[in-house]
Amino acid sequence: MAAAEAAVVSSSSLETDTALVPETAGTAAAMAATSSATAAAAAVAAAARTGSEARVSKAALATKLLSLSGVFAVHKPKGPTSAELLNRLKEKLLAEAGMPSPEWTKRKKQTLKIGHGGTLDSAARGVLVVGIGRGTKMLTSMLSGSKRYIAIGELGKATDTLDSTGKVTEEKPYDKITQEDIEGVLQKFTGNIMQVPPLYSALKKDGQRLSTLMKRGAVVAAKPARPVTVYSLSLQKFQPPFFTLDVECGGGFYIRSLVSDIGKELSSCANVLELTRTKQGPFTLEEHALPEDKWTIDDIAQCLEHCSSLLPAELALKKSKPEESNEQVLSCEYMTLSETKGEDDVIKTS
Hints:
alpha+beta, twelve-stranded mixed β-sheet, tRNA processing, pre-miRNA binding, cytoplasm
């Protein structure tokens, strides 16, 4: 009997354990499903938070970009034109701020003004001064100051563009020219002088650039000589046929014309092989020109803060107040200040 009861008990226990197994498995499966759903929901929530934080971050960057006002300098490499470089800078800033964004298209528009002061030839490198925000209004006044260049000239060859990018139009001997000869003629090109600008230049005829007309094969008459100023001019190196000049000059001055005129004065000819602008206004290549890897909103903001101390007191800008809305679309306005004086000092927008 006891054995039978024991057998019954054992059987009952077995039945009970067996019955519990599927119930426990079902519960575990349910818990796992719940856990997966919870994890998925958490992931979605985290993604939403991340997306929201990203939008807030981009909006904050856009607001900061809109608040930038002042003048700073960038390092222009050989190759792109000044306008192309400005466009590249603008695109990098807009991309960093996440602009334009489809969800912002119905928001209040805000214009980002950006421009450069003083065209630098595509074959040249060096300091290019940029105005942003209200800083674009400062370019004319501030950049009427001096500019400094290091130019390498090549004796014995003349080109249609007056530099190495052009077609050779004339060749003359230079073997008898000495360092003393070059130093002797430099005085004639120092101070207030008259200079004929190059045909390949940003100067205009009937609303079109002379360089554009020349490339089209149009017959273009040279512009008359005009007054320019050379503050200092020295010969740094002479290794025939190459000579290196250090030039500090005022606005509207063309280094290409200077080198060509020096060649003619030496009874030969010459063209510019390399040109570097080392200083523009108070901005120097070594200290102030931002390389392309520093073209970020934060780096430019810091640069504007630092460079404000370089400007005359009457030109210093007060800090701009941030825009009230964090979500605004930027429409860009390009402003280019001509290198020349008088009627050519026009700020163009497009």
